[in-house]
Amino acid sequence: MAVSARRRRTGLAAWGFALPFTLLFAVFMLVPVASSLYMAFTDMQGKDLRTPWAVNFVGFDNFAAVLADPKFQQAAGNTLYFVGVAMPLTLGIALLLAVLLNSGLTWFRSVFRVGFYAPVVTSIVAVAVVWRFLLQPDFGLVNSGLGLFGIEGPRWLTDEVWAMPSLIMMATWRNVGYSMVILLAGLQGIPKDLYEASAIDGAGAVRQFRSITVPLLRPTILFCAVITGIGYLQFFEEPFVMTQGGPLGATNSVAYEIFNQFGFGNYGLSAAMSYVLFVAIVILSYLQFRLLRTEK
Amino acid sequence: MTVLTERPGTRRGAPQGSAPRRPATRRFTPRAILLNVVLLLGLAASFGPLLWMIVSSVKPEGEIRQFPPSLLPEQFTWSNYTELFATLDFPRFFANSVVVALVVTVGSVLFSAMVGYALAKLDFPGRRALFLLVMGTLMVPGMVTFVPLFVLVANLDLINTYAALILPFLAAPFGVFLMRQFMLDIPDELLDAARVDGAGEFRTFFAVVLPQTKPALATLGILTFLGSWNNFLWPLVAVQSADKYTLPVALALYSTGQNTVQYGLLVAGATVIVLPILIVFLALQRHIVQGIATTGLK
């Protein structure tokens, strides 16, 4: 595509098109990104809200304080627990559903697809209200249902051990549909002759899944893993609405702790935490690329 | 990452990907029956909680807690809604959510299309730098920037204003990326033809480029609207007076408040947030699902 004379003389008009976005982008994206880096190295407090330039530089003190804080350590551990369990669970169920839906034996394929996707479009706050009720220990549907089988359900959200699994269950429920739709689209891009040829060679369904589906779907799986992982690392609304981080900090997350420190007026500390979270997001994305690339 | 390999427009009217594989008549072999029963159970788990929420919202308080739950309300009542709208000013929150989501959607999609067009089809000084900056911030999540954004918005004296709820979302890097990818596929000849016919740059954009990008505009518009409607963290910190609350903020603050919480009001509130979106989703599900699927493919 050669740069025509037309292209060169359109510079002014082009900036006319680019200007509204660029101005807003500079003010509301570039300035905050740059100033969060600045804030992370200062002792900025809530009282400095109107005078953000009149603060002291403290070097890496915030980062040191964050990493040494037992509350942050617990929050980081909780976040890793959440991502480590919820992400594979979400991807695994999504892949299973996508393969089942793609099998050609389903009776109401579009109904299933829409039904599994519906929770994705719902507000997490509304969903949390519903799930808080479902998980009520005394009259909630989950425990009442378990009671039918003679099982006494745990006190889900108020139990230190069961609170996080409750939130994992809810997050998985809500997010499976997103990955499922993308994986389903990916599956439809795999040529059918591959399956037919391998069937002639005597490959069963499991073998086909391992040797054809997974390798050819790898880029799509990677995309879902990265997007899901980034979302889960920022795990915030669920603890906010369901547990307030409790009981005893069992569902406190890094994102929720950032919000808490912000609420206490510890802006510098809060900014430092968000950088720790950001670095974790970058590392996770990188790891997933590496793992899925090199794995044979 | 998110690359459009095929312009959704070219698929319009064509059935979903592997439609030819769908059998003409339903099969009822044991395997098919097992598979469908499993999927139906999954569907119940997936859609059941939402259905329970909607049905419970028209039940009286006592019946909501009953087990097994009544499939249809034994005592039908609108009282949860009337109380919600009378005591908690939900019409106001609803209007706030609608206004914010609409303005964000129209503004952000339009600005994304404009800058996407410039990046894809026009040459200008700074183009490469702008593109790299947009790409660089594509991965920066809201959780990382909300504290400095709050400080900025406070210093612009915008806390507790609609501007605070709208302005930060008008410049969306993902939208720019999506529109640029899509517009790269518009043939240059088409644009040149418009110019030969005497159309100026803006005329060309509005009369030729925008109609060509309708499928992408629809996808981006729906995704942006959903994102804004369900957005929680930023509205929670950016507005502190109740008259500017959006629906999720109002519901969250009510449900975590220390006052005695009524479940009837809660499920009615949740239904008010979810039901409009669910209806829009069911009406436009083809666009939404297709759009999501397309953005995830290499």
Automatic annotation (TrEMBL), chain A:
ABC transmembrane type-1 domain location: 76-288
Membrane topology reported for the UniProt record: Multi-pass membrane protein
InterPro entries for this protein: ABC_transporter_permease (IPR051393), MetI-like (IPR000515), MetI-like_sf (IPR035906)
Taxonomy, superkingdom: Bacteria
Any one cellular-component term (Gene Ontology): plasma membrane
Claim: Transmembrane helix is one of the keywords in the record: yes
Localization: Cell membrane
PROSITE patterns (alphabetical): ABC_TM1
Keywords from the UniProt entry: Cell membrane, Membrane, Sugar transport, Transmembrane, Transmembrane helix, Transport
Biological processes per GO annotation: transmembrane transport
Family: Belongs to the binding-protein-dependent transport system permease family.
Record-given protein name: Multiple sugar transport system permease protein
Automatic annotation (TrEMBL), chain B:
Record's GO cellular component terms: plasma membrane
Transmembrane segments: 32-55, 93-118, 130-153, 159-179, 216-237, 263-284
Positions of the ABC transmembrane type-1 domain: 94-284
Localization, UniProt: Cell membrane
Keyword Transport attributed: yes
PROSITE patterns given in the database record: ABC_TM1
Bilayer topology term: Multi-pass membrane protein
Stored InterPro entries: MetI-like (IPR000515), MetI-like_sf (IPR035906)
Pfam families membership: BPD_transp_1
Family annotation (CDD domains): TM_PBP2 (cd06261)
Sorted UniProt keywords: Cell membrane, Membrane, Sugar transport, Transmembrane, Transmembrane helix, Transport
UniProt-annotated stretches for the region Disordered: 1-23
UniProt keyword NAD present: no
GO terms under biological process: transmembrane transport
Domain of life: Bacteria
Family indicated by similarity: Belongs to the binding-protein-dependent transport system permease family.
Listed name of the protein: Multiple sugar transport system permease protein
